[in-house]
Amino acid sequence: MMSRGIRGVASALLALAATAAWRPLVDALKLRPESTLSFDGKSTVRDWSCKATQIDARIEADPGAVAGVLQAHKAVKTVTLTFPTAKLDCANGTMNGHMMRALAGTQFPTIVFTLTGYELTAGAPVKGPLNGTLTIKGVTKPISIPAEYAAAPGGALRVTGKYALNMTEWTVEPPKLMMGALKVDPTILVNFDLQLQP
Protein backbone atom coordinates (compact mmCIF):
# COMPACT_ATOMS: atom_id res chain seq x y z
CA MET A 1 0.00 0.00 0.00
CA MET A 2 1.31 3.44 -0.89
CA SER A 3 2.21 5.47 2.18
CA ARG A 4 0.63 8.86 2.84
CA GLY A 5 3.98 10.60 2.18
CA ILE A 6 4.49 8.88 -1.15
CA ARG A 7 0.90 9.66 -2.17
CA GLY A 8 1.51 13.31 -1.32
CA VAL A 9 4.64 13.45 -3.48
CA ALA A 10 2.85 11.70 -6.32
CA SER A 11 -0.05 14.16 -6.13
CA ALA A 12 2.36 17.11 -6.22
CA LEU A 13 4.14 15.71 -9.28
CA LEU A 14 0.83 15.16 -11.06
CA ALA A 15 -0.20 18.74 -10.28
CA LEU A 16 3.08 20.08 -11.69
CA ALA A 17 2.68 17.96 -14.81
CA ALA A 18 -0.86 19.23 -15.31
CA THR A 19 0.31 22.83 -14.89
CA ALA A 20 3.05 22.32 -17.49
CA ALA A 21 0.59 20.68 -19.88
CA TRP A 22 -1.73 23.69 -19.68
CA ARG A 23 0.98 26.31 -20.00
CA PRO A 24 0.01 28.80 -22.74
CA LEU A 25 1.66 28.07 -26.08
CA VAL A 26 1.71 31.75 -27.02
CA ASP A 27 3.18 34.83 -25.38
CA ALA A 28 2.13 38.44 -25.75
CA LEU A 29 4.52 41.01 -27.20
CA LYS A 30 4.05 44.61 -26.13
CA LEU A 31 4.87 47.86 -27.90
CA ARG A 32 7.53 49.96 -26.24
CA PRO A 33 6.62 53.63 -25.68
CA GLU A 34 9.36 54.76 -28.07
CA SER A 35 7.57 53.08 -31.00
CA THR A 36 6.52 55.58 -33.67
CA LEU A 37 4.09 55.71 -36.57
CA SER A 38 3.52 58.70 -38.83
CA PHE A 39 1.59 59.67 -41.94
CA ASP A 40 3.75 61.97 -44.06
CA GLY A 41 2.51 63.87 -47.07
CA LYS A 42 2.90 66.81 -49.41
CA SER A 43 0.68 69.69 -50.42
CA THR A 44 0.76 72.58 -52.85
CA VAL A 45 2.23 74.76 -50.07
CA ARG A 46 4.27 72.61 -47.69
CA ASP A 47 5.07 69.11 -46.53
CA TRP A 48 3.23 67.83 -43.48
CA SER A 49 3.35 64.98 -40.98
CA CYS A 50 0.75 63.51 -38.62
CA LYS A 51 1.96 61.26 -35.82
CA ALA A 52 -0.03 58.58 -34.05
CA THR A 53 0.26 59.56 -30.39
CA GLN A 54 -1.48 56.35 -29.31
CA ILE A 55 -1.01 52.86 -30.74
CA ASP A 56 -2.97 49.98 -29.25
CA ALA A 57 -1.42 46.60 -30.08
CA ARG A 58 -2.47 42.99 -29.61
CA ILE A 59 0.36 40.67 -30.58
CA GLU A 60 0.53 36.93 -29.92
CA ALA A 61 3.70 34.96 -30.56
CA ASP A 62 5.54 31.77 -29.72
CA PRO A 63 7.73 31.82 -26.60
CA GLY A 64 11.15 33.17 -27.62
CA ALA A 65 9.60 34.99 -30.58
CA VAL A 66 12.20 37.77 -30.75
CA ALA A 67 15.07 35.33 -31.21
CA GLY A 68 12.94 33.28 -33.58
CA VAL A 69 12.13 36.18 -35.91
CA LEU A 70 15.79 37.27 -35.93
CA GLN A 71 16.56 33.77 -37.21
CA ALA A 72 13.86 34.17 -39.88
CA HIS A 73 11.41 31.84 -38.11
CA LYS A 74 7.74 32.82 -38.28
CA ALA A 75 7.24 33.01 -34.52
CA VAL A 76 4.63 35.79 -34.44
CA LYS A 77 1.09 34.45 -34.72
CA THR A 78 -1.38 37.35 -34.66
CA VAL A 79 -1.08 41.13 -34.84
CA THR A 80 -3.76 43.79 -34.57
CA LEU A 81 -2.75 47.46 -34.40
CA THR A 82 -5.35 50.12 -33.69
CA PHE A 83 -4.80 53.89 -33.97
CA PRO A 84 -7.49 56.22 -32.58
CA THR A 85 -8.24 58.83 -35.23
CA ALA A 86 -8.49 61.55 -32.60
CA LYS A 87 -4.92 60.76 -31.50
CA LEU A 88 -3.35 61.77 -34.83
CA ASP A 89 -1.32 64.92 -34.19
CA CYS A 90 -0.34 67.02 -37.21
CA ALA A 91 1.34 69.70 -35.02
CA ASN A 92 -1.23 72.17 -36.34
CA GLY A 93 -4.69 72.60 -34.86
CA THR A 94 -6.25 73.54 -38.19
CA MET A 95 -4.69 70.56 -39.95
CA ASN A 96 -5.79 68.28 -37.10
CA GLY A 97 -9.38 69.40 -37.61
CA HIS A 98 -9.27 68.96 -41.37
CA MET A 99 -7.72 65.50 -41.05
CA MET A 100 -10.32 64.47 -38.47
CA ARG A 101 -13.11 65.54 -40.82
CA ALA A 102 -11.49 63.86 -43.84
CA LEU A 103 -11.27 60.59 -41.89
CA ALA A 104 -14.83 60.98 -40.55
CA GLY A 105 -13.28 60.42 -37.15
CA THR A 106 -16.51 60.81 -35.19
CA GLN A 107 -18.19 58.05 -37.18
CA PHE A 108 -15.06 55.92 -37.65
CA PRO A 109 -12.91 56.52 -34.55
CA THR A 110 -10.12 54.05 -35.33
CA ILE A 111 -7.72 52.97 -38.06
CA VAL A 112 -6.97 49.23 -37.83
CA PHE A 113 -4.25 47.01 -39.31
CA THR A 114 -4.69 43.24 -38.99
CA LEU A 115 -1.90 40.87 -39.98
CA THR A 116 -2.95 38.01 -42.27
CA GLY A 117 0.49 36.61 -43.11
CA TYR A 118 4.14 37.45 -43.60
CA GLU A 119 7.40 36.18 -45.06
CA LEU A 120 10.92 36.36 -43.67
CA THR A 121 14.26 36.23 -45.46
CA ALA A 122 17.37 35.65 -43.36
CA GLY A 123 19.99 38.39 -43.30
CA ALA A 124 21.15 41.40 -41.37
CA PRO A 125 18.55 42.77 -41.10
CA VAL A 126 15.92 40.10 -41.65
CA LYS A 127 13.51 41.27 -44.36
CA GLY A 128 10.06 40.34 -45.55
CA PRO A 129 6.61 41.73 -46.35
CA LEU A 130 3.84 42.15 -43.80
CA ASN A 131 0.55 41.17 -45.43
CA GLY A 132 -2.71 42.22 -43.90
CA THR A 133 -5.81 44.35 -44.09
CA LEU A 134 -6.05 48.06 -43.38
CA THR A 135 -9.35 49.60 -42.34
CA ILE A 136 -9.76 53.36 -42.73
CA LYS A 137 -13.08 55.21 -42.65
CA GLY A 138 -14.91 51.88 -42.55
CA VAL A 139 -13.24 50.63 -45.74
CA THR A 140 -11.07 47.50 -45.48
CA LYS A 141 -8.48 46.69 -48.13
CA PRO A 142 -5.56 44.22 -48.37
CA ILE A 143 -2.05 45.66 -48.25
CA SER A 144 1.50 44.31 -48.33
CA ILE A 145 4.17 46.33 -46.52
CA PRO A 146 7.94 45.80 -46.98
CA ALA A 147 9.52 45.54 -43.53
CA GLU A 148 12.86 44.96 -41.82
CA TYR A 149 13.46 43.23 -38.49
CA ALA A 150 16.44 43.79 -36.19
CA ALA A 151 17.43 43.44 -32.54
CA ALA A 152 16.72 46.39 -30.25
CA PRO A 153 18.22 47.11 -26.81
CA GLY A 154 16.79 45.18 -23.89
CA GLY A 155 15.90 42.08 -25.88
CA ALA A 156 13.26 43.79 -28.01
CA LEU A 157 12.47 43.31 -31.70
CA ARG A 158 12.57 46.39 -33.93
CA VAL A 159 10.27 46.36 -36.96
CA THR A 160 10.62 49.21 -39.47
CA GLY A 161 9.11 50.00 -42.83
CA LYS A 162 7.16 52.41 -45.01
CA TYR A 163 4.15 52.16 -47.26
CA ALA A 164 2.81 54.54 -49.94
CA LEU A 165 -0.94 54.86 -49.43
CA ASN A 166 -3.45 56.57 -51.69
CA MET A 167 -6.10 58.03 -49.39
CA THR A 168 -8.78 58.05 -52.08
CA GLU A 169 -8.69 54.23 -52.27
CA TRP A 170 -10.17 54.29 -48.75
CA THR A 171 -12.70 57.00 -49.78
CA VAL A 172 -10.74 59.68 -47.89
CA GLU A 173 -10.95 63.08 -49.57
CA PRO A 174 -7.57 64.86 -49.16
CA PRO A 175 -7.98 67.94 -46.94
CA LYS A 176 -8.03 71.43 -48.45
CA LEU A 177 -7.02 74.51 -46.48
CA MET A 178 -6.86 78.27 -47.03
CA MET A 179 -9.95 78.44 -49.27
CA GLY A 180 -8.57 75.60 -51.38
CA ALA A 181 -5.18 77.24 -51.97
CA LEU A 182 -3.52 74.43 -50.00
CA LYS A 183 -4.36 71.05 -51.48
CA VAL A 184 -3.02 67.85 -49.95
CA ASP A 185 -1.60 65.21 -52.29
CA PRO A 186 -3.72 62.04 -52.05
CA THR A 187 -0.66 59.78 -51.71
CA ILE A 188 0.90 59.71 -48.26
CA LEU A 189 3.80 57.73 -46.83
CA VAL A 190 3.15 55.64 -43.74
CA ASN A 191 6.39 55.32 -41.74
CA PHE A 192 6.67 53.01 -38.76
CA ASP A 193 9.38 52.12 -36.26
CA LEU A 194 7.94 49.63 -33.79
CA GLN A 195 9.78 48.03 -30.89
CA LEU A 196 8.21 44.83 -29.55
CA GLN A 197 9.08 43.69 -26.05
CA PRO A 198 8.33 40.19 -24.65
Explain what this protein looks like in three dimensions.
By secondary structure, this protein is α+β, with helices and mostly antiparallel strands. Helices cover 17% and strands 47% of the residues. It has one domain: Lipocalin, CATH 2.40.128.110. The strands form 2 sheets. It has an 8-stranded antiparallel β-barrel with strand order 1-4-5-7-8-9-10-13. A two-stranded antiparallel ribbon has the order 11-12. Strand 7 and strand 8 form a beta hairpin. The longest helix is centred in the N-terminal third of the chain and has 18 residues.
Name its key features:
3 helices, single chain, Lipocalin, 198 residues, alpha+beta, two-stranded antiparallel sheet, eight-stranded antiparallel beta barrel
